[in-house]
Structures are given as structure tokens and as C-alpha cells.
């Protein structure tokens, strides 16, 4: 992700507030809880969304970072908040992964939070160090099968989305590699750039700047067509692994019990924000695409994701250390 392209957009002036809709927003400051440290695309997208919502509803919308335990600290904070429409949770794939990793979550991922809308999708990209000698996915799979367990991959930690994304790829290709966890996917990518780790899977938003700069090679992106941000990188389908289609996603949820009218209003406001040229441009710079969904569609999406990652965790025998 090229933050130099995105940060100026964050500093741009707000649009003027438009007249309030018929359904009044609850009075007070709205907070968007981000369950990760500042700097990730999750954080950046929350700040972009907060700016748009501030302009649209005419009251302050702020971002609150509550990192820890793979996103569960922030999710717990949101789940326990008053269901008054003043607390939102903006999270990603990790929300659907946590139920399979933590045997006693302090919240029910499918019951204690109401899904409002997806806001963005980003393809996964397989990043490898230039000196590895694998310029395409076919060659990489051949190397991994010839040297089982010797090639290494980095991730943002045991059980992180980057870890499980690679476990899914290893299962699909029938290969084994050494997992090297780090504190965050950015640190893992830096280790691949340094040559101390062979590869990593990340969102396109996290890898696009490194591939453009030539410090890493992109061997495949998920999706049916090539990513506009990196048209030189083939899809996994083109690379011979059509069954691999893991995508990163981001979405907004609110505490259970939030009035239906507020959920509907919030969904509509998010839809408006996602059409903002400033937000669309910033997302595109990060290799992400705005996605607006209904609450029902997002709930079904999260339920499918929970089931998918439960299967991956069980098959790979992933346990938190």
C-alpha cells in the first residue's frame, strides 16, 4: 500500500453536511472502533469513512484503535457497547477467523454484533523474494514439492489471516512450507524483502507498492480477472490454481440491539460514502474496491467465512501459542 498516495486524501477538506434525513441520527459523537493499530488499511479505511460520515450526518465521527489478540479486543469492546448507534466496529477477515482460534471468545461473533455492510474487497496476492528463483506459481509449487518444509512463508502471526491464507494455498496445492510468524503482516513483508523469508500472502492493498517498486515479485492474485493496480500479475486461475480464491474484505457492524431504523440509516449513509470520489480514489490507490451490501448479505457473508476458516484451522491443526 502506498500511504503517500492515500494520506493527502485523508487531509482533504470535508464536504459540507447535507440536510439530515428523516430518521434522526442518535445525538453524540459516533466512534468507529478499529481492532488493530494505526497504519493498516483497516485503519485507513475507517478514517476515510469517518470523514465522509461526519460530512453526511453533520456530527463528529471519530476512529478509536483498540488493538490486541488478533482483533478480539476491539470486537469485544464493540459487542459490549450500548446499542445506541454511536458505536461501530470496522473489521476484516480476522473477525470470521477468531471463533475457530479462541475457544472462549467473550462475545458471539454471529450473535452479539449486527452486520451493517461490507465496505471493501481486495484480492490476495502471493509475494515472493526476487532471489527465490520462482518467477511463476508453477515453478514455486515444483520447488515446494521437491523440498517439502524447506521453503518459508511469513505472516502477521499464528492464526492471522495471512497465515491461514497460506495454509489454504498449501492445502490446495498439496505442498508443505515452514511458517514464520511476525507481529503484523507489514513486518512479514519486510522480512520477505530482506530475503530472510521466502514469501507471504497479503492483501493487494499491502503488496501493491512493493511489486510496483520491484522489491517483490507477485506470482498470483485472486479473482476472475487481473487487478487493475497490477495488471502484469496473473490470476491464480491463469497460474494453474483455479481453486484458490481467498479475498480480503472489510465491513461494519454494530452491537446487537441497535434499532433497525438506525441500522438502515447507517447502511444508506455508508452506501453514499462509498460513492465519494475521494474515497474511491483512495481505495483504488490501495488496491481495494468499495463494496456496499445489505445487512442480510453481510450477515450471510460472515457466516460463510466463519465456516470456511473453521475448516482451514481444523485441517491445518492451527493452534495459538
UniProtKB/TrEMBL annotation:
The keyword Signal applies. Transmembrane segments: none annotated. Keywords: Signal. It comes from the Bacteria. The keyword Transmembrane helix does not apply. SUPFAM superfamilies: Periplasmic binding protein-like II. It holds the Pfam family TctC. Residues 1-24 form the signal peptide. Belongs to the UPF0065 (bug) family. This is Tripartite tricarboxylate transporter substrate binding protein.
Amino acid at each position: 500500500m502506498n500511504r503517500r498516495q492515500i494520506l493527502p486524501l485523508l487531509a482533504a477538506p470535508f464536504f459540507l453536511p447535507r440536510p439530515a434525513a428523516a430518521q434522526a441520527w442518535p445525538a453524540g459523537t459516533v466512534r468507529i472502533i478499529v481492532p488493530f493499530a494505526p497504519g493498516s488499511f483497516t485503519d485507513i479505511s475507517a478514517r476515510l469513512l469517518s470523514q465522509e460520515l461526519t460530512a453526511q450526518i453533520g456530527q463528529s465521527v471519530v476512529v478509536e484503535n483498540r488493538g490486541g489478540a488478533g482483533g478480539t479486543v476491539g470486537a469485544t469492546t464493540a459487542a459490549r457497547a450500548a446499542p445506541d448507534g454511536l458505536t461501530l466496529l470496522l473489521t476484516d477477515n480476522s473477525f470470521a477467523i477468531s471463533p475457530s482460534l479462541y475457544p472462549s471468545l467473550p462475545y458471539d461473533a454471529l450473535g452479539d454484533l449486527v452486520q451493517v455492510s461490507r465496505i471493501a474487497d481486495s484480492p490476495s496476492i502471493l509475494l515472493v523474494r526476487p532471489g527465490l528463483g520462482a518467477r511463476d506459481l508453477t515453478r514455486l509449487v515444483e520447488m515446494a514439492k521437491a523440498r517439502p518444509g524447506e521453503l518459508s512463508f511469513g505472516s502477521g502471526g499464528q492464526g492471522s489471516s495471512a497465515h491461514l491464507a497460506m495454509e489454504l494455498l498449501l492445502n490446495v496445492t498439496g505442498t508443505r512450507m515452514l511458517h514464520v510468524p511476525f507481529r503484523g503482516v507489514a513486518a512479514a513483508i519486510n522480512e520477505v524483502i530482506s530475503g530472510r523469508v521466502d514469501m507471504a500472502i497479503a492483501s493487494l492493498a499491502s503488496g501493491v507498492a512493493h511489486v510496483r517498486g520491484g522489491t517483490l515479485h507477485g506470482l498470483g492474485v485472486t479473482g476472475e480477472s487481473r487487478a487493475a493496480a497490477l495488471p502484469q500479475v496473473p490470476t491464480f486461475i491463469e497460474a494453474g490454481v483455479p481453486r484458490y480464491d481467498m479475498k480480503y474484505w472489510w465491513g461494519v457492524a454494530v452491537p446487537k440491539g441497535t434499532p433497525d431504523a438506525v441500522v438502515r440509516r447507517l447502511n444508506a449513509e455508508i452506501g453514499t460514502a462509498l460513492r465519494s470520489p475521494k474515497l474511491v480514489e483512495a481505495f483504488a490507490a490501495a488496491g481495494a474496491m468499495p463494496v456496499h451490501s445489505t445487512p442480510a448479505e453481510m450477515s450471510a457473508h460472515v457466516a460463510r467465512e466463519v465456516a470456511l476458516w473453521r475448516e482451514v484451522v481444523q485441517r491445518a491443526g492451527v493452534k495459538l501459542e
